Amino acid sequence: MKNINILMSILMFSSLTQIVFSQNSTLGVKAKNGNTVMIDILEDNPSNVKAFTLQLPIWHLAGSKINTSILDLKGDIAYTGKGKFNGGISYKFGLLDKIAPDTYEGDYPNHDLVMSINKPVKSQELNLYGTYFFKDQKEEVIERIRLKTEGNVATVTDVKTKGLTRTGLNLGYAQGFTWYNFNNVSINVNPSVNESIEETYEFMSMSSIQDYKFVKLGINRTKMVNLKLNAEGYGKKESSHISVNNFNLILAVQNKFDDVYVGQYNTDNNVVELKHYSMNNSNAKLPVGFEFTHREIYKKSFFSYEYGIKYLPGLLKNINLMVNFGFSVNIDFLRNK
User: Fold this and answer.
1) Between 90 and which of 8, 31, 76, 321 could a Cys-Cys bridge form, CB atoms 3.0 to 4.6 Å apart?
2) What span, in angstroms and rounded, lies between the C-alpha atoms of 160 and 142?
């Protein structure tokens, strides 16, 4: 019952509902309790928002049948906002990758398997990206402003303000390498001693290392709000943030895999015999993919978040879907601009 009362209190006091615009930059906001809060608009120009940020990782993860990581270290430095050009650079290190699916690289004396001739290392990726904006469109949006918080009760108001939607063209480049699981599909390989011979294997444990270079082309939709006001009795308040959405086509300019060892269990001597094979020329590859990504930047916050979904170039018959999510410390060198 106590929780229900708290919830009712939040619903009753967490919004100020009626907004009346005057001829100048002053608003009269009428609360449900009958009090009116006068608000002076100090700035309402989303075109001025800009951020030059250094993002340091708190927690990033990637879920995929190719390679799942429960902790990626991802750093990013970027300029976002005002101006025709935005861009940045990021680097990702898979500190706790290769968590799933389970394979037998470390236990090959007891199992049939396919594995890279090289020891799997932590996945790494360098990403360069830029956007040229060719269209800006302003529109009226509703922005929620928090006036005060007392315990579990937040007093907020919805204010009509200007929003800026920007449309641009993306160009990016990514390169890296990753442990690559074959999803238990069959693969074709050629013995290194005679590559004219082709053999097919389908074991429970099959993987290699993918070495890739991707070019990215796509569309960027960025939304910006920059509202600063003075609320009588509550002081100065601000809502200044940037939402970045990208949809990119991914083109593989390099999509190759390590040679592999095929290991088969010999029951006569109870060991797995390893043979060296090549696989790059015997398996159809998917040369294109796509990605959707979202990033949120709040000017007065020291934290940011991002998420994305991708279907990556790789082996054609593999499932190359990946989902990413992450939180970062956000250091904005233009925080007070």
Assistant:
1) 76
2) 5
Longest dimension (CA), the chain: 93
What the block records as the tokens of 278 is 């090549």
Q: Which helix (H) or strand (E) holds 153?
A: strand 153-181
* Ramachandran quadrant class, 151 (left: phi over 0; alpha: psi -120 to 50; beta: rest): left
Q: What element of type H or E holds 123? A: none
Q: Which residue has the tokens 């290194």?
A: 192
**What are the backbone angles phi and psi of residue 316, rounded to the nearest 5°?**
-60, -40
pLDDT tens, N- to C-terminus, the chain (337 residues):
444 444 444 444 333 333 333 323 555 554 434 567 788 999 999 999 999 999 999 999 999 999 999 999 999 999 999 999 999 999 999 999 998 777 777 666 667 889 999 988 899 999 999 999 999 999 999 988 888 888 888 787 888 899 999 999 999 999 999 999 998 789 999 998 888 899 999 888 899 999 999 999 999 999 999 999 998 888 998 999 999 999 999 999 999 999 999 987 777 777 788 899 999 888 999 999 999 999 999 988 999 999 999 999 999 999 999 999 999 999 999 887 7
Residues 6+ apart with CB under 8 A from 15: 156, 157, 158
What span, in angstroms and rounded, lies between the C-alpha atoms of 193 and 277? 8
What are the residues whose beta carbons fall under 8 Å from the beta carbon of 209, sequence distance 6 or more? 116, 118, 120, 121, 177, 178, 179, 180, 257, 258
Q: Are 114 and 205 in contact (CB under 8 A)?
A: yes
- Which pTM does this prediction carry? 0.85
319 vs 245: CA distance, rounded Å:
24
